[in-house]
Amino acid sequence: MSTQDIVLISLFCAIIVALGLIPPVNIAIVPVPITLQTLGVMLAGAVLGPVRGACACALVVLLTVLGLPVLAGGRGGLGVIPGPTGGYLLGWIPGAYVTGLLVKTFAMRVSRRAPQLAAYFAACVAGGLVVVYAIGIPWTAVSTGLGMGKAAVGALYFAVGDTLKAAAAAAVAHNVRRSYPIEPR
Fold this sequence. Notes:
The protein is mainly alpha-helical.
């Protein structure tokens, strides 16, 4: 890894942590809060590419496991992993990877602005929602005993907000990459 890689990974780790400073919104049906940190996950993958984006998220997970209060609401510690939010947290790593991979594979190959922006959005939805939910929902179901049905219904409360975050991440990543081209890794 180059110095630039380390700086970018650290920067996006800090962005994800900073987005956790905004207080979480708790909902009654599932014990998983709504946070802005998933926006940072999608941004990390879309801007940095698959490897560096996943590394930025892995660094946040490592800081969490080490006990630093880097998650929304000042949460941290090894106890977060077996809890209801642990699957979503661990899902950030492959979520950022998939987002970055799709941006690198598809969005970067489109030359026109609107289709490229749509490809960024699709990448953010696929990585930031589909992959993260695919890991988070079963984890929540098992850790809370809610069952897959209730955990999936609970995740629907997040879907609208996460789709808006995906749109914001796509717009920001598209403009950042146009202004400051970073080779995706």
